[in-house]
């Protein structure tokens, strides 16, 4: 069916067609086929808008301000960028928050807004404009940096929220890490907004907060939200003591958990909930819990009474020692319904016998999604690890983050090995990180990785993979200084700087993105001549040596006959 015949379909049918496309690139290509298709697919194409850089934020928000017919379809708006300087001098933050203030009256159906910058918005009136102009806005997300909201901030005037998230950035810990809750009046207003004025709260994600005085209890422990189903707590101190009453009474936060029987997603930290306190939790509490994220000790206390967990993320990296594989397998084998697992390992040597992955796979035969991070040392080759997890019959999505072997293959070659070992995969991702990268940082979000690739497997009519849709990212080379503007070429050495050499927070790096289709059928060449010369592999090294020899031979012949 060509674009003319497709454009003749009714608008509601075109929306159904667009909603069935899993890739936003495919939706965009469909929308660009004709003006009619673009207008018809706008509600799907612009339903969720995710802006990840300052330049992208300013260009897109300016476009939306001039095109209200497009802005009116946005339901979720996610703003994320890095600050260019200090809070008061941050031109990016000032411009973006001002653009959002002007755009707010055009966001008719907006119900979710997330501000994930390094600092709070410089234009606090942005929150007032969103509250007054977006009547459907029920989910908010913000962050605290070096500057925190004032007691009169419009952020604290929302009511009837369904979801709220708060993230603490680098600047908060350098300026306010020792502040107590009683010294921050705005914090009391924040919890008043969430507890008293938002009784139907369904999702709450607080990834940190100020300290509380000894013997006091955090306001969160006294809250009761009957519809709460998702709770995520970071480094948030909830209570010092066991609360009023005898020593055997329930701790305030344990009583909070037992009162919220609808919880399905729960993420915690050691600061918010000590692992040994979970044993006092009533075994019948949290009967609908299916998603859990925490430490291995949290899971050891929770797993016996909650075998219904299907999605698990072990937040703290596991240091691999002799008994580590046995302890992990002993905990996971009681989770018979587990389908998704995210886990990270820290290796202190480059040798691993393979028992770790074998035990992991044997205890979780029903996994459909697996994410493994191996840090500090190059422990596995990608093809070896892929063969180890190939015995999972239901595995469809895989993400591997590891330190590459010095003589290892390139991303393309590794991706081919993964497809050959696990042809039933739908998609997978490979990320190569440095051995010095702290696991407290997310390499994919900050761009702190050597190479990264996302791959989607395309199959034929028999279900056999015939090609691989590849999107590979590498940090773009940048000079630490500006070259003088002169019309002659300069030979300038490339200087490498570690993003952790200074006390400033890590900045996002510009990424060089390459998209291509890799043919997996035998007898076809995966690389052209130039692609093979640039390939980081043994074959690429040989091709480069051969190219140099041919060039030297040509120069010698030219000099001889000249």
Kindly describe this structure:
- This protein is of the alpha/beta class.
- Helix content is 31%, strand content 19%.
- It has an 18-stranded mixed β-sheet that branches.
- Strand 7 (230-235), helix 11 and strand 8 form a beta-alpha-beta unit.
- The N and C termini lie far apart (61 Å).
- The model is unreliable at 242-248, 441-446 and 479-505 (pLDDT under 50).
In short:
The protein is α/β, with parallel strands linked by helices and 562 residues long. The chain has helices at 3-7, 11-19, 24-31, 35-45, 54-66, 68-71, 91-103, 125-133, 170-175, 185-195, 252-259, 296-302, 324-332, 355-363, 382-389, 411-421, 443-446, 529-534, 538-561; strands spanning 48-51, 76-79, 112-115, 139-144, 163-168, 203-208, 230-235, 265-267, 291-294, 311-314, 318-319, 340-346, 369-375, 397-402, 427-432, 451-459, 465-475, 511-519.
Brief descriptors of the model:
alpha/beta, 18 strands, 562 residues, 31% helix, 18-stranded mixed beta sheet
What is the secondary structure topology, with strand pairs?
Layout: H1 3-7, H2 11-19, H3 24-31, H4 35-45, E1 48-51, H5 54-66, H6 68-71, E2 76-79, H7 91-103, E3 112-115, H8 125-133, E4 139-144, E5 163-168, H9 170-175, H10 185-195, E6 203-208, E7 230-235, H11 252-259, E8 265-267, E9 291-294, H12 296-302, E10 311-314, E11 318-319, H13 324-332, E12 340-346, H14 355-363, E13 369-375, H15 382-389, E14 397-402, H16 411-421, E15 427-432, H17 443-446, E16 451-459, E17 465-475, E18 511-519, H18 529-534, H19 538-561
Helix pairs in contact: 2-4, 3-4, 5-7, 7-8, 13-14, 15-16
């Amino acid at each position: 069916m060509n674009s003319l015949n497709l454009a003749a379909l009714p608008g509601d049918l075109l929306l159904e067609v667009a909603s069935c496309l899993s890739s936003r690139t495919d939706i965009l290509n469909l929308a660009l086929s004709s003006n009619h298709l673009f207008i018809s697919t706008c509600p799907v194409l612009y339903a969720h808008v995710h802006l990840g850089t300052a330049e992208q934020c300013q260009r897109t928000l300016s476009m939306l301000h001039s095109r209200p017919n497009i802005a009116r379809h946005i339901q979720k708006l996610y703003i994320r960028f890095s600050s260019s300087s200090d809070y008061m001098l941050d031109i990016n933050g000032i411009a973006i928050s001002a653009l959002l203030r002007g755009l707010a009256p055009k966001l008719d159906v907006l119900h979710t807004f997330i501000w994930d910058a390094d600092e709070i918005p410089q234009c606090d009136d942005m929150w007032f404009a969103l509250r007054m102009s977006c009547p459907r806005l029920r989910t908010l997300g913000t962050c605290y940096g070096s500057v925190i909201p004032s007691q009169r901030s419009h952020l604290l005037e929302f009511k009837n929220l369904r979801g709220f998230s708060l993230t603490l950035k680098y600047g908060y810990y350098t300026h306010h890490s020792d502040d107590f809750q009683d010294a921050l009046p705005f914090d009391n207003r924040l919890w008043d907004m969430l507890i008293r004025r938002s009784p139907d709260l369904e999702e709450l994600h607080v990834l940190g907060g100020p300290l509380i005085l000894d013997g006091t209890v955090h306001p969160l422990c006294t809250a009761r939200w009957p519809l709460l189903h998702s709770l995520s707590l970071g480094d948030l101190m909830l209570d010092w003591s066991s609360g009023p009453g005898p020593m055997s009474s329930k701790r305030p936060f344990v009583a909070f958990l037992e009162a919220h029987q609808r919880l399905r997603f729960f993420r915690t930290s050691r600061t918010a909930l000590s692992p040994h306190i979970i044993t006092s939790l009533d075994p019948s509490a949290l009967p609908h819990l299916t998603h859990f994220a925490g430490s291995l000790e949290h899971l050891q206390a929770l797993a016996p009474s909650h075998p219904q967990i299907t999605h698990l993320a072990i937040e703290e990296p596991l240091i691999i020692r002799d008994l580590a594989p046995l302890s992990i397998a002993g905990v996971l084998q009681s989770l018979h319904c587990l389908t998704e697992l995210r886990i990270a390992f820290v290796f202190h040597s480059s040798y691993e016998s393979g028992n770790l992955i074998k035990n992991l796979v044997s205890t979780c035969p029903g996994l459909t999604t697996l994410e493994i991070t191996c840090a500090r040392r190059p422990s596995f080759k990608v093809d070896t690890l892929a063969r180890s997890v190939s015995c999972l019959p239901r595995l469809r999505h895989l993400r591997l983050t590891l330190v590459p072997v010095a003589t290892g293959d390139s991303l393309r070659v590794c991706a081919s090995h993964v497809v050959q070992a696990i042809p039933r995969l739908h998609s997978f991702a490979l990320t190569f990180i440095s051995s010095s990268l702290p696991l407290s940082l997310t390499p994919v979000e900050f761009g702190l990785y050597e190479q990264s690739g996302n791959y989607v497997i395309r199959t034929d009519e028999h279900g056999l993979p015939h090609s691989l849709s590849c999107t590979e990212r590498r940090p773009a080379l940048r000079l630490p200084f500006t070259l003088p503007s002169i019309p002659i070429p300069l030979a300038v050495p490339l200087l490498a700087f570690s993003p952790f050499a200074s006390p400033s927070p890590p900045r996002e790096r510009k990424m060089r993105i390459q998209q291509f289709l890799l043919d997996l059928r035998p007898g076809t060449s995966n690389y052209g001549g130039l692609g093979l010369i640039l390939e980081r592999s043994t074959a690429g090294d040989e091709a480069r040596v051969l190219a140099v020899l041919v060039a030297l031979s040509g120069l010698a012949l030219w000099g001889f006959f000249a």
